[in-house]
Amino acid sequence: MRPSQTTSEVARLVTPLARVLDAAWRRMHWWLAAMVVLYALSGIRVIRSGEVGVVLHWGRAIGGTHGPGAMYALPWPIDEVVRAPVKQISELQIDTLRDTPQFGPLDPVKQGYALTGDHNIVHVQIVAHYRVRDPAAWAFYGPSPDDVLRTEVTAAMVRSLGEMGVDRVLSDGRKQLVATATRRAQAGLDAAQSGLELTGLELTRLVPPAAVARDFDAVQSAFIGAETAKKQAQAYAQAAVPAAQAGANQAVQTAHAEAAGARGRADSDARAFVALAEQVRQNPVVVRERLYREGVEQAIWHATTRWVPPPVGARYSDLRIELERSDVGPAHERPSATPSRPTTPPRASDEAAPLQPPGED
User: Fold this and answer.
1) What is the rounded average pLDDT for all residues in the chain?
2) CA 39, CA 74: separation in Å to the nearest integer?
3) CB 198 within 8 A of CB 189
4) What is d(CA 267, CA 270) in angstroms, rounded to the nearest whole number?
5) Domains in the chain, please, with CATH?
């Protein structure tokens, strides 16, 4: 009798609940069906441009990645779609090695710093540029991407600074420092399977401690001055050497031209002398008179006089020549000789010495 009583007691308690559920289903079955449909449609996802979607089925990646566009996954909590911005370049400012604006001794607890290879202290402020390279690894990585990126970049920068001297770090070694730190930070991100790719590091601040900043600025100014003087000297050399080479080439060409001209004139004079010697051998009297005539004309071309023929005997006897300067025409023009006779007796100062024919003593 006891089991029968228990069954009837349960039925008595369940009957009202069944009546309530039956009444609710009769009145709200359309609403429940609509909610089920909406829940099923909630699995539709839209992946925006520049993103890829990773589907996690009960927390496990399936199906690889999905590009931009519409996709369907089972509603939450069965499936979860993680969107990864694979084409977006993000920035992260890293201040772990930056100094704080304060005066007094360096406090390692409150201030960040790094040591160079020659045991000098520097403060660094970095901006890291990165993007998501492996969406699946990025979606499953436990810690925050910013935390792992900050840790790896700081460790790489401290190690790279420890291999360089402070003078080079603060002058011309920044490019090498950034390249080395970028390579080491990317190796650390890959080892941690973070799925991140470091596209570049930017040093926004790299200074010595405030107590010695003035001395380091003086060293930097001297280094810049030396580089400027070196570049100016190189620029002057680049301009002066071609000019000197051009001058030397011009001088050589001028010398060759003068030598060729002198050689040509010498050859011409030699040929003329040989020709004159041949004429003298053939007709010495005519050549002698022509040479004598040309010599006298060349000596007194600026004066007006009558032609004086060569003497017949050994010398001229009682011969006087009066020279009248011609004022007609330019001084460089040679006046024509016209015969004239002296109309006034010559003065003693105008008396010329007796002329002798050429070739006789």
Assistant:
1) 75
2) 9
3) yes
4) 5
5) 2-84 (no CATH), 90-208 (3.30.479.30), 302-361 (no CATH)
Half-sphere exposure of 322 (CA within 13 A, CB side): 11
Q: Which of 101, 187, 180 is nearest to 148 (CA)?
A: 187
Cβ proximity of 105 and 20 under 8 Å: no
338 pLDDT band (50/70/90 cuts)?
very low
Amino acid at residue number 250 = Q
Rounded CA separation 208/167 (Å): 11
Question: Quick one: CA torsion of 149, 155, 156, 158, rounded to 10 degrees?
Answer: 140
**Rounded (to 5) percent helix, strand, coil in the chain:** 50, 15, 35
Strands in 7-148 per DSSP E: 44-47, 52-57, 60-66, 69-72, 79-84, 90-94, 114-115, 121-132
Pick the closest to residue 216 from 206, 201, 227, 230 (CA basis): 206
Check residue 263 and give its pLDDT: 93
Angle subtended by helix axes 213-282 and 284-299, to nearest 10: 130
Neighbouring-strand partners of residue 125 = 205
Confidence band of 229 (pLDDT split at 50, 70, 90): very high
CA 139/CA 193 separation, integer angstroms: 11
Contact in structure between 198 and 130 (CB atoms under 8 Å): yes
Structure confidence by residue, pLDDT tens digits, 80-115 = 777 777 778 889 999 888 876 655 566 655 678 888
Matching residue, tokens 């023009």: 333
Q: What is this structure's pTM?
A: 0.48
Residue 194 main-chain phi, psi, to 5 deg: -80, -20
Task: Locate 18 and state its tokens.
Answer: 């069944």
pLDDT tens track for 111-164: 788 888 888 888 899 999 998 888 877 777 666 888 899 999 999 999 999 999
- Per this entry, what is the length of the chain? 361
What are the structure tokens assigned to 190, written together? Answer: 């890959």
Q: Which tokens hold the place of 168?
A: 């080079």
Contacts (Cβ under 8 Å, ≥6 apart) of 326: 302, 303, 304, 335
